[in-house]
Amino acid sequence: MPSFVSTPPAASSAEALTHFEQALRFETDCWDVHASMSSGAPDYVLLDVRSHELFSRGHVPGALSLPHGKITEGKLAHYPPDTLFVVYCAGPHCNGAHRGAARLARLGRPVKLMIGGITGWVDEGFVLQVDAAL
């Protein structure tokens, strides 16, 4: 009797290859972001799309705070049109990164989502930067 895992059956290898290669065009992970940020020369802008308050309590080092609801062309005007933005939020339980990615895409900006968000970052053992109290 087939299990819930094998029903429906897996896609063909060709279909799986297409699917997973496409997924990598839309997302990156915490390890890749960490390695790139650690190199000192990331080729993207990392956006924490949570509230400024949550950002100040702990964020990925090198990230900028821009809540997803505040992403506008005016706030991006000083970035060249081909700038890649990588967005993240609290984690898999939060859709803020998807909202931010959608806003950036609507503005014609290249965007990827850092899967896992803050939760993934911490789970991987990476340190958060905490801003000093204002």
Describe the structure.
- With 134 residues, this protein is an alpha/beta fold.
- Helix content is 39%, strand content 13%.
- The protein contains six helices and five strands.
- It has a five-stranded parallel β-sheet with strand order 1-5-4-2-3.
- The N and C termini lie far apart (61 Å).
Key terms:
single chain, 134 residues, alpha/beta, 5-stranded parallel β-sheet, 6 helices, 5 strands, 13% strand, globular
Distance between the termini: 61 Å
Query: Helix- and strand-based class?
Result: alpha/beta
Calculate the mean pLDDT score and round it.
95
The total count of helices amounts to: 6
Q: Output the helix-strand order.
A: HEHEHEHEHEH
Largest sheet geometry: 5 strands, parallel
Beta fraction: 5-15%
**Number of extended strands:** 5
Query: Poorly predicted ranges (pLDDT <50, ≥5 residues)?
Result: none
What strand order characterises the main sheet?
1-5-4-2-3
Q: C-alpha Rg, in Å?
A: 17 Å
The outline comes out as: globular
Helix content: 25-40%
Question: What's this entry about, in short?
Answer:
With 134 residues, this protein is of the alpha/beta class. The protein is 39% helix and 13% strand.
